[in-house]
Amino acid sequence: MRPPAPYAWDGGICHAAVPVEETENTVTAPVLSPPLDIESAWIDYNGHLNMAYYGVLFDRGSDDAFAAMGMTLDYVRTRKLTIYTAEVHVRYLRELHLGDRVVVSYQLLDHDAKRLHAYQEIRHVDGWLAATSEILSLHIDQAGPRVAPFPADILAAVEAMFSEHKRLPTPQGIGKPIGINRRKETAFTQNITQ
């Protein structure tokens, strides 16, 4: 669960030039992906990253977190257990373009015997925030497929990650509903808008 060197997490910013010391006291939360490149096929007719590929980046960026919890491709193949996404809320905050490099973070916010509630950020390697994602994942027995409890060893790894991540501040916007904020109409505002 250690951030991949040479990247370090500091107050919500990924620092590409700060080496991560390999000690037992190194903060390992949140889990950070290695730098990811924006691929040319992902650029849309507006000249920026198509919204669908933010999902690809979030997915690729969660690989190290799932591996740290023991849920690797080998886990899927040998134990016939996996993770499905049940719900996701993405906020697009700043455009990404061809040539940009990003790091994706994964912060485990909560869990129970069958579910993970997580928060992710896509940050440019220069540190600015491009997008956030709040996600609810389900642990699945592929024989059904059906939602199933984590095996004891996996649950222990989930709990270990959660114990580190719960020390992090709660990200802004978690649980925020999507909607249009309407101001209360008064006689004065009705006259202004007409």
Q: What would you say this structure looks like, in words?
A:
Strands 3, 4, 5, 6, 7, 8 and 9 form a 7-stranded antiparallel beta sheet that branches. The chain contains 5 helices and 9 strands, in the order ββββαααβββββαα. With 194 residues, the chain is an alpha+beta fold. The model is unreliable at 1-27 (pLDDT under 50). It is globular and about 65 Å long. The protein has a single domain (29-169), classed as Hotdog Thioesterase (Thiol Ester Dehydrase, Chain A). Helices cover 23% and strands 30% of the residues. The longest helix is centred in the C-terminal third of the chain and has 14 residues, at 152-165.
Q: What gross morphology would you assign?
A: globular
- What is the strand content? 25-35%
| CATH topology description | Thiol Ester Dehydrase, Chain A
The CATH architecture name reads Roll
Kindly state the number of beta strands: 9
Instruction: List low-confidence stretches.
Output: 1-27
What's the structural blueprint in terms of helices and strands?
Layout (H helix, E strand, L loop, with lengths): L7 E3 L2 E3 L15 E2 L3 E2 L13 H11 L1 H6 L4 H7 L1 E12 L8 E11 L3 E10 L4 E13 L4 E2 L4 H14 L21 H7 L1
Antiparallel strand pairs: 1-2, 3-6, 4-6, 5-8, 6-7, 7-8, 8-9
Can you give me a brief rundown of this structure?
This protein has 194 residues and is an alpha+beta fold.
